[in-house]
Amino acid sequence: MTELEKMQRAKMYIDKLANGINPIDDTAAPENDVINNVRLSRCFFYVSDILRQVIENGGTAKAIKSAPKSPFFLTDEQKNQYIPSDKPISVSEITKALNAIADLEKCKKLSYSLITEWLISIGALELRNSFDGKAKKYPTPQGVELGITNETRSGINGEYNVVVYNKDAQLLIVDNIEAIVALKNESKEKATENRGQAWTLAQEECLIELFNKNVPVSEIAVTLMRTESGIRARLKKLGLIEKRSEI
SS3 of 62, please? Predict the structure, then answer.
């Protein structure tokens, strides 16, 4: 007897039990018999339906697809669980703390880049060329007023600068988490506005300027309202990169 035949036989027995029939001799079970218990009958019918689905699928259970997670979010109660550090900390440390509070079974993880992109959009951070020619984020005068500063730290490769956030700046981020997450969706919508449209000379000049400043492709895409793949394709066509995967 094959596995599929065994399942069919098992379903037949379960169906009889569900209908109050003794599967051994096909006689009706007495009213007070345990198999006539309403809860057991419902259970039998449920198991029978599961077996039916497996049998119809050739004896293989269908993979259960997990429900898609929603964008990152915090409830008011979860926001109140965030304890700001008295010592200024980096955005990655803030992000790690917020992910620890959130219910990541229901929502996606928060990326620190979403926070910095939002801070740039409100004028608290700006991109500047550093001594190595790369575009890096620095607090603006407005950002400094909000509690964002630039700190020099020491590492195995020597000193380096990092943007840090004091207690007030940390709470600002927590209080505006909805706006931070919403900015990503808005950026995605804007990124497709010029998709498939011919490039203008002004757009190409802007692309070249941003590329030479080492601005990340994701931010160039938002600025020019195009997809990241479209940005890479144009850079390749302009001879600035050899392969689309180069940046």
Answer: coil
Residue 105: count other Cβ atoms within 10 Å of its Cβ: 7
Q: Which of 244, 243, 238 is nearest to 207 (CA)?
A: 238
Q: Is residue 49 part of a domain?
A: yes
Q: What is the mean pLDDT of each run of 10 residues along the chain (247 residues)?
A: 85 87 86 82 87 82 72 94 96 96 93 92 86 78 96 82 95 95 67 71 88 84 81 89 62
Residue 153, strand partner residues: 160
Domain-located, residue 64? no
Same domain, 197 and 216: yes
- For 138, what's the count of Cα atoms within 13 Å in the CB-facing half-sphere? 12
Report helix, strand or coil for 160.
strand
Q: Please tell me whether residues 186 and 100 are part of one structural domain.
A: yes
Residue range of the domain that includes 31: 3-56
Q: How many domains does the chain have?
A: 3
pTM above 0.90, yes or no: no
Domain stops at, among 190, 205, 230: 190
Question: What tokens does 177 get?
Answer: 């988490």
